[in-house]
Each structure stands twice: as C-alpha cells, then as structure tokens.
Write a structure and sequence with these properties.
By secondary structure, this protein is an alpha/beta fold. Helices cover 40% and strands 15% of the residues. The protein has two domains: 162 residues, Periplasmic binding protein-like II (D-Maltodextrin-Binding Protein, domain 2), CATH 3.40.190.10; 96 residues, D-Maltodextrin-Binding Protein, domain 2 (3-Layer(aba) Sandwich), CATH 3.40.190.10. The longest helix has 20 residues. The structure holds glutathione (GSH). Glutathione binds next to β11, α8 and β13.
Length: 341
C-alpha cells in the first residue's frame, strides 16, 4: 500500500499535470509571426551556409533550418524571409525585433545568455575558431604567427579568443578589426593582414570563394569551442520550444534513418515511437498543440539533419566539409535529440 506521504505527492503531481495540460501558451514572438504570416530570419553571407542563388532564392545549411521552422509554424517552407546582417549588427537587431531568430552561425555563450538576454536553441553546427593564412608564409600552427597581423571580424567571439590565445602563449600579434565581410576577406587577399581568424567553417566557406583558394591554407588547429546555435530573444518559451523541437526533429529523423525519400514508407511502421514521431499516432502532436505531423512535414519538405548537411556543405557539395562532431551520437558525433514522447 502507498504511504500517505507518497499518495500526497502523487495527488499533487496529478493535480499539477491536470492544471498545466490545458495551459495556454503565450508568446509575443510567435503571436507576431502568426499575424505577419512569415518568420524573419537574420543570416550571414557565406555561400553554403546562407546565400541567395542565381534566381535570388536563399539557399544553405542554416537557411534550411529556417525553412524547417516555417514548416512547423505554417506547414509551408516558404513562409520565411532571410536578411543578411553583419556579426556586429545582428544581435542588437534581434533584440530590437528586426528578426525573430538568428540562424547566422551565432556561438552560444554565457554572456550572450545572461548579460545580453538571448536564448539558444540546439547546436546545429559544432565548430571552433580557425586561422586562414597565406600558404607562402610557411606557417603550420597558430603559435608560428608570433608578431603577425591578424584580421578579426568585429562583434564576433573571435575577438576575445584570439587575444586569449596570444596572451596564454606569451606571444604577440597585431589585430586589425574589420566589420564588413568583404573588407575582411579583401584584407587577406590584398596582403593587409597575414591571416584571418573566424569560425573555421566560415573560413572554409570563404577560402573557396577566393580568387586563388590554393594559395591559402586553413590551419588544422582550433583555438576555441564555437557551438553555433539558433538565437532568439529571451522571454518567449513557446517560440523557444518550437525552435528546439524543429531542430530535434531533423536530428531524430537521421538517427532513425528516416529521409525525404523514404518518410512515406515509414508511415507504415508498426514501431509505436515512429508512429508518434511521424504523427500517425496523433496523441503526441495534439498534446503539444502542434500539427501532429510536424516532424513528418519537416522531413518531407527539407529532409533530415544529414540530408541538410550533405546537400549544402557535405563531401559531395562544392564545400566538402567532413561531418566531424556533426553526426549523430550513434555514429560517434555530438548530435543527440531528446525523446519524442
Ligand atoms: N560564431 C561567432 C562568429 C559569427 C560569424 O561571424 N559567423 C559568420 C558565419 S558562420 C558570419 O556571419 N560571417 C559574416 C558574414 O557571413 O557576412 C560569433 O558568434 O561571434
């Protein structure tokens, strides 16, 4: 028999669950998005991550997560607009309401959370700070850059990381802090700086856009951890959870082997977990107050995480990135979705 104490707890828990089950989710961002009919996304300008194609349609790894969000909210991957903004401008622009979300390679940091008032969705790309140098310098590691002139993009985590690195290694460098991306890249090509420092992914994407990519080398060393995650203004739980579970849906789909091409086959699965995930069993989606098929719709429209990665930046794309940490935990990577139940 249950002790009266345990019974008391059980009753309190049941009451809490009952009380919260029908709780109306309020959210100023989501309300505004619904009223407007589109999601406003702030992005950067690196082809592979985010850039308009020749027809003016935005394409890229981060762009696809914006489309996935539009599917969750509107069941329409086109109900989203993308606007580029420099690393210096974009966090203030998010704070002032110009954007609903940044999908621009923002690093999740404690200062940005506590001091600047941002929340982060799941990490979509595990990165680290790199250095892009002219091959003719013969440099093989960061410490060889003692006394070098290094270009840094203003408003990025790179500013503090590079200063920390040289302080720690008791070497010196001359910083050249640049806001505009074009000028930042030109500084290396024109010889104004010996090296550029930025997220390694960004430098990899920039290198292939240079006139002579083979004249430059991305050093293998990483100076920091740069977990790149969707950023939103603090204070809107419903919007945050939509961002979280949209990204998780792409990660969970890859773990389960569900792709854009085979998702309809999976609708016939007898596995109760898959039935819930794809909304064949509607109970989960109804409890979440989302379209029970939201995960199915995302996979159908955009694909799973691996497909998003491969299409935009993977080995067979022009970019040619390795998956590295960015593969499912079941394959030795860091991508891990909490359970869909
Ligand atoms: N992750 C760093 C750097 C962010 C960053 O600069 N991201 C790149 C894209 S991954 C960027 O915006 N580059 C400039 C551009 O795209 O114009 C931060 O959060 O401060």
């Amino acid at each position: 028999m249950k002790s009266s104490r345990t019974l008391g707890y059980s009753l309190a828990l049941a009451g809490w669950l009952a009380g919260s089950a029908g709780a109306a989710w309020a959210g100023p961002t989501l309300d505004a998005i619904r009223q407007r009919g589109t999601i406003k996304v702030g992005v950067g300008t690196s082809p592979g991550f985010f850039a308009p194609d020749s027809a003016g349609k935005w394409q890229g790894f981060f762009v696809d997560f914006g489309r996935a969000l539009a599917v969750t909210v509107f069941n329409d991957p086109e109900k989203v607009s993308f606007t580029s903004s420099s690393p210096q401008q974009r966090l203030p622009a998010l704070q002032s309401g110009e954007f609903d979300i940044l999908l621009s390679g923002v690093t999740q940091t404690v200062t940005r959370a506590f001091k600047l008032g941002f929340h982060f969705g799941p990490v979509v790309f595990y990165d680290g700070q790199g250095l892009l140098v002219k091959k003719s310098l013969g440099v093989t590691k960061a410490a060889d850059l003692d006394g070098a002139t290094i270009g840094i993009q203003s408003g990025t985590t790179g500013e503090l990381n590079i200063a920390d690195f040289f302080r720690k290694s008791k070497k010196t460098f001359k910083p050249v802090v640049i806001e505009e991306t074009k000028e930042f890249v030109n500084a290396l090509e024109s010889g104004r700086v010996d090296a550029l420092t930025q997220d390694a992914s960004d430098l990899g994407l920039r290198r292939i856009q240079l006139g002579k990519p083979d004249d430059y080398v991305l050093l293998p060393e990483r100076l920091s951890k740069e977990p790149l995650a969707p950023a939103i203004r603090a204070g809107d739980d419903r919007w945050l959870e939509i961002v979280n579970w949209t990204v998780f849906a792409t990660i969970q789909a890859e773990e389960l082997g569900i792709t854009q091409a085979n998702v309809d086959e999976f609708l016939k699965s007898d596995d109760p977990g898959i039935k819930r995930f794809l909304g064949v069993d509607k109970s989960l989606g109804e409890a979440l107050e989302l379209d029970p098929k939201f995960a199915y719709n995302i996979i159908k429209a955009v694909g799973n995480y691996g497909e998003i990665f491969e299409r935009n930046i993977g080995k067979k794309s022009k970019v040619g990135f390795e998956r590295g940490y960015n593969q499912p935990w079941t394959q030795g990577g860091l991508l891990y979705s909490p359970p869909f139940r």
